[in-house]
Amino acid sequence: MRNSEFRPAQRTVEVSPGESVRIIRELQELSQNDLSDLTGIPQSTISAIENERINLGVERAKVLARALMCHPAVLVFPGWEIEKHTAA
User: Fold this and answer.
1) N or C, which end of the chain is more exposed by having fewer CB within 10 Å?
2) How many CB atoms lie within 10 A of CB 82?
C-alpha cells in the first residue's frame, strides 16, 4: 500500500472534559474510589466532574492528570486539534 492511500483518522464523537476523565480512568481500570484515594478528591466530586455537574477546573485537572499519568490539557481540552505547521 502506498502512503497516498492512507487518510488521517477523523474524530466522530465529541468528548467533554468530564468524559475524558472517565475514559482515561476506566482505561487504567481505576474506580472512582481508587482515583479518589490517589488524589484526595472526594469520590462524589469525581462523579460530579464525570457527569458534568461541576467544572473540572485547572487545579483539579492538574491533580487528576498526575494520578492518571497524562498531561492536564488532555483532560481540560479533550477536543483540541493542533494544526500541522511546516518548518520555514
Assistant:
1) C
2) 5
Side chain identity at residue 27, one-letter code: L
CATH superfamily, domain 17-72, is lambda repressor-like DNA-binding domains (1.10.260.40)
First to last CA, the chain: 30
> Which is nearest to 39 in space by CA: 27, 30, 52?
30
Q: What is the residue-level pLDDT of the chain in tens, covering all 88 positions?
A: 455 677 776 766 788 999 999 999 999 999 999 999 999 999 999 999 999 999 999 999 999 999 999 999 999 988 776 666 555 5
